[in-house]
Amino acid sequence: MSSLPSAHLPSGWAPVPGSLAGRVVIVTGATGGLGGETAKAAVLAGATVVITGRKVRALEKRYDELVALGGSEPVIHPLDLESATPADYAALAEGIENEFGRLDGIVHAAAHFNELTPIAMHKPDDWLRAMQVNVSAPFALTQACMPLLTKADDSAVIFVLDDPELLSRAHWGGYGVSKAAVERMAAVLHAENGRNAMRVHAVLPAPMRTALRRAAYYGENTLERPLPTASADAIVYLLSRAGAEARGTVLDLRHTH
């Protein structure tokens, strides 16, 4: 059972151009499906987006796609969440403060998922990788950026969840356990920051066409699933001032039409 209440997108809500104008936002996993779509949606909404990921060439390709949208120029900050140290996160926060003097949001879109496997067969290093990328990295990045986020007059930290009913079934292993931990991290962070400028959100996307989904559902034609665009638009809602009414909730996108 979730320790955060559920919320839904306001009916008829659509992305508003300029709703993130002047805002600076970090998107992790920006070379992936959800991270990439979120970075695009944020640029279209007027944000300056700091894209992180571990593959520089893939980040450069994403950068070119974002520049072509014609908004604020994005910033590339390579970051390997598997091996990053507290000093790396501090350097990212410091770089953003020096360049922009502000930070208005973080979207934790990066995720590690290897394969469905029973716990008896789970490779220990893969378990540790899931915990590192999915839990410890969002903690360390958020903590390093909190001085900037709490200085903003309105900011948002957004954690991405996955279907809790599904993830408590057999074989979801380290990924399933890590996503439960992420939900609890969001709850604790909200309890500590429920009244200040930094809002805490969780989002539960509908099934979408991503590499992670393809790895997890061999029997499914993932191409029949929609691209992560609708989920990315919903994340922009949370990053914008309008998202304030959903603070401290799980924005459930599974049943929106």
Automatic annotation (TrEMBL):
The major lineage groups are: Bacteria, Pseudomonadati, Pseudomonadota, Gammaproteobacteria, Lysobacterales
User: What protein does this entry describe?
Assistant: SDR family NAD(P)-dependent oxidoreductase
Pfam families listed in its UniProt record? adh_short
State the organism of origin.
Answer: Luteibacter flocculans
Q: Which family does it belong to?
A: Belongs to the short-chain dehydrogenases/reductases (SDR) family.
Query: InterPro entries, alphabetically?
Result: NAD(P)-bd_dom_sf (IPR036291), Sc_DH/Rdtase_CS (IPR020904), SDR_fam (IPR002347)
Alphabetically list the UniProt keywords.
Answer: Oxidoreductase
Asked if the record carries the keyword Nucleotide-binding, the reply is: no
The coiled-coil segments of this chain are none
PANTHER family in the cross-refs: DEHYDROGENASE/REDUCTASE SDR FAMILY MEMBER 7B, SHORT CHAIN DEHYDROGENASE
In terms of superkingdom, the source organism counts as Bacteria
